[in-house]
Backbone:
């Protein structure tokens, strides 16, 4: 397997610590992201998938645990200079293309903000050339540079968001539901663009979404989250063909497919955490059932799953 | 089957600073009793405007129903006054909206929002109405309805709010329920529950449903018939099998091909529909889809295509079905779904004006 770009170790993000309304949004998750891959993160709203993304890029300070980017911890004390270095390598694309672009800035200024901060262009001319180049990369034209965000459609705005993320030549992009707010026909355009950029620039993506069919299409591996915990992590096809954790099975059984015949016969499984019947003190952790396929389970379940799937 | 609703040649336009936007440009369809019709299309295709016109919820001005008829049980509701509409809304037709947080009143208890319609339309006493509200909450699967009836919307989760909205919509046993993207804001697991609930209630109450969505998976799950809208017009309409297994319009092909299927090859590019929908202040000459359509013929840029009929229930508005049109192959992803349906006519028939 390729080299690890990012290691997330026992990451925790709790809000309102010490108060009665404490929320354990992310509660001890561990996974790696390899260079050049797309890791999909799925789960219901409130399961902590967006918080995970935001904590990795340090929009929140982690309560506990480590995020290692190329072996260096992202969190912890850092000088402004070191932080700047990280910010250049990691970028984010947000869900809402309407709320995430400053309405008072021109497209050129939005895209070039990162270039200015990191001093990547030596003069005004080079700066504008870079902006034009980025606009072209994401399928917009030069003429769009001096317009304002309100003059664009949702799909075009998401392209501007992608151009902004690409402006500083990052290695790693966190895409937090980048297509959820877009129309079906436009979703495919944006996903194709993201795949093309990955091929050309060797980007690594963390793709957070709740649309499971799109996630399967774009991801190499998929992690499923439930109540702040990662419950299953597997290669995309493997997860769809052999979902092992009962929550994953329930999630997959709930997706309506664009095929009336299968829809007529589809049976939805529901998930209740009580099915596990965990005894007190049982050690729950991610265990590898088949190569690359991890499930959050107890020792007993591990043995059962192993017997069931390992052939 | 009995026809509940007939929409004939509906045209809706809006006056804006930029000119008149023709949001709905001649839409005709009918709806039978107990049937679910799904309307699909992108944002701006006119699907929500069509459904809001049926409730006459279009703000007038700037909106205007500039032509056509909406017959509910044979009675045209277009000329009806606001006062007359009040008797129809909630009682004959009700609506479920996309966002359950902004469409419930945050300062009113859930119970009062349900009983409002009952007290107004059915002259129910307060106590009877409250009992009915509890019964409705139980029907839509809300636990402890006696307690929930006195709570406010912010005390409900997203899925529960949508259930409460359904309870409000069903309070007066409407004959027609319009659901405008009722599950778009919800998680897949909650979505599945809401869809099951709607189907269950439909079979119990024999309500007709117009279901607006852009999720083709949801369409395949709920719909009996499907209407595909583009740029203010219905471009294809048929039973759910006809649309999914024998689509004829290139826009429908585009929609179906742009979705990844679970068993598709992930290394292949998705067949995206290029470009964006046209501006309806100045609808393009000819076929509105022509500019984004790789199958467009020369005539598409000149003359609007007529409606062709492919079976008793299947209609498509494209020149490709004309006898003189060249034979074309649909995209690979669509070809895989195609199958021969027994009801198909031997040759597409041109639909005469007035249908």
Residues:
């Amino acid at each position: 397997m390729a080299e690890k770009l990012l290691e997330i170790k026992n990451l925790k993000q709790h809000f309102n610590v010490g108060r009665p309304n404490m929320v354990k949004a992310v509660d001890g998750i561990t996974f790696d992201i390899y260079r050049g891959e797309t890791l999909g993160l799925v789960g219901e709203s409130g399961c902590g998938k967006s918080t995970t993304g935001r904590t990795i890029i340090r929009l929140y300070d982690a309560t506990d645990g480590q995020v290692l980017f190329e072996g260096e911890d992202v969190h912890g004390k850092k000088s402004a200079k070191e932080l700047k270095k990280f910010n250049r390598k990691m970028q984010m694309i947000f869900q809402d293309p309407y709320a995430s672009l400053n309405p008072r800035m021109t497209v050129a200024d939005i895209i070039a903000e990162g270039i200015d901060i990191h001093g990547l262009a030596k003069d005004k001319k080079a700066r504008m050339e870079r902006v034009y180049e980025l606009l072209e990369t994401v399928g917009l034209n030069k003429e769009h540079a001096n317009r304002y965000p309100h003059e664009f459609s949702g799909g075009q705005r998401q392209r501007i968001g992608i151009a902004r993320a690409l402006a500083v030549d990052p290695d790693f992009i966190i895409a937090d539901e980048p297509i959820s707010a877009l129309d079906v026909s436009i979703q495919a355009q944006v996903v194709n663009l993201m795949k093309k950029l990955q091929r050309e620039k060797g980007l690594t993506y963390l793709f957070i979404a709740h649309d499971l069919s799109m996630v399967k299409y774009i991801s190499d591996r998929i992690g499923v989250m439930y109540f702040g915990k990662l419950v299953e992590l597997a290669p995309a096809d493997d997860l769809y063909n052999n979902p092992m954790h009962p929550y994953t099975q329930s999630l997959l059984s709930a997706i309506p497919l664009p095929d009336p015949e299968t829809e007529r016969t589809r049976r939805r499984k529901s998930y209740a955490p009580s099915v596990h019947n965990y005894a007190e003190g049982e050690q729950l952790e991610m265990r590898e059932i088949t190569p690359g396929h991890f499930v959050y389970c107890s020792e007993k379940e591990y043995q059962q799953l192993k017997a069931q799937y390992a052939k | 089957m009995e026809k509940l609703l007939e929409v004939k040649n509906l045209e809706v336009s809006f006056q804006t600073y930029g000119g008149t936007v023709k949001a709905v440009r001649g839409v005709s369809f009918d709806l039978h009793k107990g049937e679910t019709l799904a309307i699909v299309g992108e944002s701006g295709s006119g699907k929500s405007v069509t459904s809001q016109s049926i409730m006459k919820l279009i703000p007038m001005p700037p909106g205007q129903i500039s032509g056509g008829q909406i017959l509910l049980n044979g009675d045209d509701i277009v000329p009806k006054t606001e006062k007359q509409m009040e008797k129809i809304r909630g009682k004959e037709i009700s609506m479920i909206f996309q966002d359950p947080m902004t469409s419930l009143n945050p300062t009113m208890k859930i119970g009062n929002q349900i009983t409002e319609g009952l007290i107004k339309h059915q002259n129910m006493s307060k106590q009877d109405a409250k009992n009915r509200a509890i019964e409705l909450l139980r029907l839509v699967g809300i636990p402890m309805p006696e307690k929930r009836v006195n709570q406010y919307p912010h005390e409900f989760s997203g899925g529960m709010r949508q259930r409460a909205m359904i309870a409000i919509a069903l309070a007066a046993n409407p004959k027609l329920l319009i659901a405008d993207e009722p599950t778009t804001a919800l998680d897949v697991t909650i979505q599945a529950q809401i869809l099951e609930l709607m189907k269950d209630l439909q079979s119990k109450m024999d309500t007709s449903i117009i279901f607006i969505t852009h999720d083709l998976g949801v369409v395949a799950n709920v719909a009996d018939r499907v209407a595909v809208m583009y740029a203010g017009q219905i471009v294809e309409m048929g039973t759910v099998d006809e649309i999914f297994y024998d689509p004829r319009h290139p826009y429908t092909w585009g929609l179906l091909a742009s979705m990844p299927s679970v068993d598709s090859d992930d290394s292949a590019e998705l067949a995206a529909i290029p470009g964006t929908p046209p501006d309806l202040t100045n609808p393009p000459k000819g076929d509105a889809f022509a500019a984004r359509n790789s199958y467009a013929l020369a005539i598409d840029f000149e003359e609007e295509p007529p409606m062709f009929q492919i079976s008793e229930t299947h209609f498509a508005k494209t020149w490709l079905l004309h006898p003189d049109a060249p034979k074309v192959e649909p995209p690979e992803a669509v070809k895989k779904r195609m199958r021969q349906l027994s009801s198909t006519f031997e040759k597409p028939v041109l639909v005469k004006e007035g249908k």
